[in-house]
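Risk mitigation, structural track. In case the binding assays with NDP fail to produce interpretable data, a predicted complex structure has been prepared as a fallback.
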Amino acid sequence: MGDLAGRVGLVTGGGRGIGRAIALSLAHGGAEVAVSGRSADVLEETVSAIRAVGPRATAIVCDVTQRSQVDDMVARIKKDLGQPLILINNAGIAGSAKLSDTTDDMWDAMLRTNATGAFYCMRALVPHMVEAKWGRVINIASIAARAGAAYIAAYAASKHALLGLTRSIAAEVATKGVTVNAICPGYVDTEMTDRSAAFISARTRRDEKEARKILEGFSPQQRLMTAEEVASLASYLCSEAARGINGQGIVVDGGSVQA
Ligand code: NDP
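Fallback model:
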């Protein structure tokens, strides 16, 4: 059994991509894992994969932008697996537009999903971590939380908000055995990046392979990061060895964001 045996974790957006990789990594560490998202089919598939590793798991359909659904999800996890003391706020959406094309709906959806959803989950779970004198919160932000870039105002604003939330709650719980950190990946090889490549391809009339090359070129390593690299770091941040790491926004991008 790994470092996380006996712990219960929640991974929002755990049905695919980075969230799925983190859910499996936590399970390999021994944790029981709840995965949530809006699509039941992929959640069930992830739960089967976790059970094949060993620990118990549960799938919960929940839109993190809806506070009542978050409250119901937390109650369900407690009933199915016990009180979660590990929270991975991974659910997120991305989009790109110049400022004048950024609609109210796009702005609201990005802020509600990427920042408010994480806030709802943290407010529901962190007090229990404080009570237990142990907890881990990992917010999957982005390099767009550490630096701005053209045409991603709504996304960057939402991820900067998520990093601000991370840093503030980390300070609030620092003496309580709870750590709160963010992981800030560059482009990761997931469906989200497939959609970014398709968008570039449609806009520039390049084929998708060329569009992916552009995205790979944002990293000094000339490659996309993998979901498993992000997941390994998340598992490390959950470990006892990482108890001194708090309030950080750790970049995983091959070296483009250095400050
Ligand atoms: P995917 O699009 O593959 O997965 C996104 C996940 O979030 C899905 O499981 C989706 O499930 C879930 N989700 C989206 N909206 C909601 C919602 N309202 N309520 C609950 N779940 C929701 O993306 P990735 O795996 O690539 O991204 C995961 C996280 O990593 C995101 O926060 C993203 O911003 C961040 N990130 C990604 C990078 C990349 O290059 N891919 C780079 C940097 C950060 P469903 O649709 O079923 O609800």
